[in-house]
Design a protein that fits this description.
This protein is mainly beta. The protein is built from four helices and 29 strands. A hairpin with a 4-residue loop joins strand 6 and strand 7. Strands 1-6-7-4-3 form a five-stranded antiparallel β-sheet, with no helix packed on it. A five-stranded mixed β-sheet has the order 12-20-18-14-15, with no helix packed on it. Strands 23-22-21-29-24 form a five-stranded mixed β-sheet, with no helix packed on it. It is elongated and about 100 Å long.
Length: about 400
């Protein structure tokens, strides 16, 4: 059993097993297990003064700094009453002192190029001090996220982190990424989201990680993402520019059931059917023009959008366009195909609606809404669109995790 002795100051994240650290000597302190604690000379011992404990650091690189991106572990030669650690800015670092008072592990990770100071106190009141420094980063890169702070998204929205470099140690990074959830508006406890990270090859040579839930997000849910990116070693000393710690909201559930065989589009909101629109899909006889069956995701929407194709020789302005993957497919108004909507598929792959129906749908759609397309000969696949997260089975998805 351990007891919490200091809280706050350090990024709260899971402690990695086997974490190691090492310190630098300071006057009146010990370091690396080779020094002698301040005040341990024979004269002081004979006077009956309390003897400070010798505090050493685990796992330093040849007696030098500890590797950044891991918790710091300190060991004491004698039981301690308390061990207080402060970071470079002077803020208290959270950590746990073991039940016997002889070891301490930080609750957060030490960042690159940091120096922490400690003060150890024995039950008799003897005090010793020391320091520990971490290695420097070789490169700091920016990491982007697809969902902004406070944004409201649909129930199929993945969380996408785009790294500004190749991540060569994805397992270490993934172990420190947390996705938590609770009902929107709640002040109760957060719980771990049921989902998995997958490392996708869609931004090579840089890395991209997607988090997808096993099933759609529960509607009306608050999500909390914690990613200590500026404290993690992505591999080879590469790290992030800043930590991520933000929240967003999953809004109402809006699922579009788009059936090309029935030539219609049905909208369900929070499980209730709210609209059925006649539609025309991609030309059935041409696989290149087929709308792709599978669970697509709304990625953007545009009141006016120029659509052009060198393959099919058109360049047209369309309205009330909702993009549902990154390969040129939209739900949009097309007055020229109204006579076919509800009976025949004639488009180049988009889903055509009348102008009033397209506008109504456009006004209701948000990023991350699922578009469940069926009834075509061509399936959504990983070679056709960037957001193909829901085109994969759960087994296929979890196989792309860095942690097995």
């Amino acid at each position: 059993m351990t007891r919490r002795v200091v809280v706050g100051g350090a990024f709260a994240s899971a402690v990695l097993a086997g974490a190691a650290a090492c310190g630098n000597p300071e006057a009146g302190s010990t370091s690396g297990g080779s020094g002698r604690a301040a005040g341990t000379d024979p004269a002081r011992r004979s006077s009956g003064a309390p003897v400070p404990a010798a505090v050493t650091v685990a796992g330093g690189i040849r007696g030098g700094p500890v590797p950044f991106g891991a918790p710091v572990t300190l060991h004491s030669s004698a039981p301690l009453r308390s061990l207080t650690v402060t970071d470079t800015a002077g803020a208290v670092v959270g950590g746990d002192l073991s039940g016997n008072g002889t070891s301490w592990v930080s609750s957060g990770l030490v960042g690159p190029g940091e120096t922490w100071s400690w003060t150890a106190t024995t039950p008799a009141g003897a005090v010793s001090h020391g320091m520990v420094s971490s290695t420097a980063a070789t490169l700091r890169v920016r990491v982007t996220a697809n969902i902004g702070v406070g944004m409201t998204v649909g129930v199929a929205a993945p969380i996408v982190l785009g790294f500004g470099a190749r991540v060569t140690d994805p397992a270490t990074v993934q172990k420190n990424l947390q996705v938590l959830m609770r009902p929107a508006g709640s002040t109760g406890a957060w719980r771990k989201a049921v989902g998995s990270w997958a490392w996708l090859p869609d931004d090579a040579p840089n890395s991209t990680a997607h988090f997808r839930t096993k099933q759609y997000w529960p509607a009306h849910t608050q999500v909390h993402v914690i990613a200590p990116l500026a404290h993690l070693d992505f591999g080879g000393g590469v790290t992030g520019v800043q930590d991520f710690d933000w929240q967003f909201t999953v809004g109402r559930s809006q699922v579009v059931v788009a059936d090309a065989a029935k030539h219609n589009l049905v909208i369900y909101r929070d499980g209730v059917k709210v609209a059925t629109y006649p539609a025309s899909y991609g030309l059935d006889s041409d696989p290149i023009r087929n709308t792709r069956s599978g669970i697509n995701i709304v990625t953007s929407k545009h009141q006016t959008f120029e659509m052009k194709s060198t393959l099919f020789h058109y360049d047209e302005i369309e309205h009330w366009a909702v993009r549902f993957n990154d390969d040129g497919q939209f739900i949009h108004a097309n007055p020229t195909t109204v006579r076919y909507q509800g009976t025949t598929n004639v488009s180049h792959g988009c889903i055509n609606l009348s102008t009033p129906h397209a506008k109504a749908y456009y006004q209701s759609a948000i990023y991350g809404d699922p578009i469940e397309v069926s009834g075509t000969k061509v399936k959504l696949a990983d070679t056709r669109t960037k957001l193909y997260d829901w085109a994969l089975t759960w087994k296929q998805w979890t196989a792309m995790s860095a942690i097995h």
